[in-house]
Amino acid sequence: MANDVTLEMELESRSKNQDDPLGLWPCYQAMKAYLSREYYRWIQANCPYYTDHGDHHIKTVIQAASGLLSQQLNGTRKNDLTTLDLFLILSGILWHDVGNVLERSGHAKRVAEMTEEIKKLGFPDLQVHRLVVEISRAHSGKDGLSIPRVEEDCLTYTVYPKALAAIVRFADEISEDRSRISGTLLPHIPEEHKIYWEYASCISASRPDPARERVVVSIEVQVDKTIVTFPCKEFPQRSDQEGKIPLITYLLCRLEKMNNERFYCNLAFARYLSIRDLEARFTILKGTDRVQDYEVTAIFRDSGLSGGSYPDIKIFDDFFAQYPAWRAVQLQEVSKR
Fold first, then answer.
1. Considering the chain, what is the average pLDDT of its residues?
2. CATH number of 7-173
């Protein structure tokens, strides 16, 4: 909601109310301005045709993290988050994708070297610097959350870096939507990148609802687009012999990944919130008309959880078993109507 308090608003408020003895708000402002000027707008130069990884993406991840923590920011649980917690979450978000300006592969590992240039301006203490680096690096990889400690003392605070990192990581996961692309440019995007743009174009909204312990993802997709196949290296087990995948199949693969991220992060940030459900609201469109009988709300939880350090919850086959009319071959007939 428009009147909800965000992480940035809360950190600024504490600074004005003399609850920021380390001067974390001006440090945060300086880092944000520096990254916007020196890095964010150049990420696309190194990763052309990627979805947005600049200022707007940072804004949406902050909004998502603020939504996840809305009960702490807007309710009676404000004491759950210290001023240092706010700074660490926000700084982790600022730095999480900056490594893309140098290279996509292993970009999370580049955070430490990239913070060196601004460490005196952005970090009041070496330990705070390290914590931000570890939280930022934890946002990717199936063992990412093993990087930060569960708990440690920092100056006059006790912090829970793993939980804070999980908040940053999951906020990043759920911040994908059509605002990260240009609808005008979409038809002209090279084939090897188009599936990622098409996926983002289908996500009309993604909203944390911690009071109901869920995230709600709204998906609207044109019926003729659902059956189009695109090159995809991300999910080879679902691709055809040419390495292509229908958009409807890719959507379910990405939701399966999001649901596994939900479970993985939920274990880590449990001291702050619980997200037990991923609610996906699907709508098939033909132009501006909703196609009859093609509106479904699916709730994904922990069913089918396999062992291991990273979850492997299977929702793909269950979804199409429950809704066979949503398979690409059936949607092909619907598109001809």
1. 90
2. 1.10.3210.10
Given a contact cutoff of 8 angstroms between Cβ atoms, the answer to whether 313 and 259 are in contact is yes
So what's the pLDDT on residue 107? 45
Report the alpha-carbon angle 176-142-172, nearest 5: 20
The token duo for 7 is 């992480």
Q: Could you read off the pLDDT of 97-125 as tens digits, one per residue? A: 776 655 544 444 556 666 677 777 788 89
Q: Residue 31 is encoded by which pair of tokens?
A: 């880092």
The number of C-alpha atoms within 13 Å of 250 and in the hemisphere containing its C-beta is: 28
Of the candidates 137, 6, 154, which has an alpha carbon nearest to the alpha carbon of residue 67? 6
Cβ of 203: how many Cβ atoms within 10 Å? 21
Side-chain half-sphere CA neighbours of 89 within 13 A: 33
Kind of pairing, strands 277-286 and 289-300?
A: antiparallel
Exposed/middle/buried for 82, CB within 10 Å: 0-12, 13-18, 19+? middle
Identify whether the C-beta of residue 136 lies closer than 8 Å to the C-beta of residue 100: no
Q: Which of 323, 296, 308, 220 is nearest to 260 (CA)?
A: 308
- In angstroms, the CA 250 to CA 302 distance is 20
**Angle (CA) 89 92 97, round 5°:** 145
What is the residue whose two structure tokens read 């009147």? 3
For 243: left if phi > 0, alpha if psi spans -120 to 50, otherwise beta; the answer is left
* pLDDT of res. 54: 78
| Ranges of the chain with pLDDT below 70 | 1-3, 44-47, 99-115, 304-308
Give tens-digit pLDDT for 176-200: 999 998 889 999 999 999 999 999 9
Could you tell me the residue ranges of all domains in the chain?
7-173, 182-335
109, exposed or middle or buried, with CB in 10 Å at 0-12, 13-18, 19+?
Answer: middle
Instruction: Find how far residue 119's CA is from the centre of its chain.
Output: 26
pLDDT at 148: 96
What is the structure's pLDDT at 335?
87
